[in-house]
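Dear colleagues,

For the upcoming journal club I promised to circulate an example of a predicted protein-ligand complex. I picked one with 6-phosphogluconic acid because it came up in last month's discussion. The inputs are reproduced below in full, followed by the predicted structure.
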Amino acid sequence: MITIQIYADAAAVAKAAARLVYERLAEHEEERKFLLALSGGSTPRSMYAQLRDLPKVAELLNHRAEIFFSDERAVPPDSDQSNYRAARVGLLEPLNLKSEIVHRLRGEAKSLEAEALRYEHEMRAVAEIGDTEVPRFDLVLLGIGPDGHTASLFADHDWRNSERKLVASPFVGLKQSHRLTFTLRMLNAARTAVFLATGADKADAIKKVLSAEFESDMLPARRVEAAETIWLLDQAAADKLNPDQARGTIKRC
Ligand code: 6PG
């Protein structure tokens, strides 16, 4: 199920995303931990600033959540390119979250292939499932690039080779660098995937991903369909989306 929520501007999207994470955490009453995956890029930073100001959010995260990352660059954790660093500075440190609930993708690993496997094992251990099962994340946060990539799944991704994996370590030709990323199998096993997209530079990708047409031009982000997929857009990013052509229900907020 795809739902599309359109907000006036990026600040409203950040606020809505923070509220969504907070509410899902607060509603989580089950014994098992709430599996949360943070996304990379710059968009989440304003969401982190909103989330960290919500009441008792540190307590909720520390007691209920296990925090993972849906992708990472092949850089050390203190690099300004690191998705982990952005989360550490914007959310983890300000809230003083317990280190044991934060599971970093080690972009500095000598073998990214080995790190991808290590991370799969860590996810299964935390999710308390067997070696053949796929962890079902409660909430995976994602962004989208102007070219329609998401996480580190780009147009040149080797889909066949990664279809059985949970974490892949592709060389991204478009970035001339390696990445670590959740695979489609991992993303589509999630209970909820939430895309944040703001700005006019995302409008073409949003049109191609969220319009019923363009089936042939299968951009990576279009391949993501979790049990529930929510798109949080600002008006600028939604500007080229024809509501009559949308692949999901549209709500103007
Ligand atoms: C990354 C991301 C990537 C990102 C999009 C959007 O590591 O770069 O995971 O998929 O979410 O490129 O990035 P912005 O939020 O900076 O537009």
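Two points we might discuss: Residues 2-252 form a domain with the Rossmann fold fold (CATH 3.40.50.1360). The pocket of 6-phosphogluconic acid is lined by residues 39-43, 71, 83, 143-145, 149-152 (CB under 6 Å).

See you all on Thursday,
B. R.
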